[in-house]
Amino acid sequence: MAKTILIVDDSSSLRTVVRLALQRAGYDVLEAGDGVEGLKQLDAASKVHLIVSDVNMPNMDGISFVTEVKKHARHKFSPVIMLTTEGQDEKKQQGRAAGAKAWIVKPFNPPQLLDAVSKLILP
User: 114 is in which domain, residue-wise?
Assistant: First the structure.
């Protein structure tokens, strides 16, 4: 059975690039345009094995989104990869404190993302 990954990013073109890379690697993909939509997708999904989230988004940013995700027992241990233009150490520390396991700075290359996903995805 394929693993399910949720992509949360306000850029539909970036979501498409990430989705295609993940689908080619055999993953099922859910998408959301911001943190609020991401939480709704998590509530509706039976199991999400990993989350890829942007930091800068409208309605609910990525750090707040990860903080909310980690409050839910069902998703507390779901690994999160932040995929963002933000590269400052302060933002990375906020992400880690919220529960993010990896930080990839855009522009990124799909093999870099797939490598991080394969290391973090839960069985």
Answer: 4-120
Give the largest Cα separation in the chain, rounded.
38
CATH number at residue 25: 3.40.50.2300
Show the low-confidence residues of the chain (pLDDT under 70).
122-123
Number of domains in the chain: 1
Element (H, E) at 37: helix 35-44
pLDDT digits (tens, 9 = 90+) for 52-68: 999 999 999 999 999 99
Structure tokens at 96: 């880690």
Q: How far apart are CA 63 and CA 110, in angstroms?
A: 22
Helix (H, G, I), strand (E, B) or coil at 36: helix
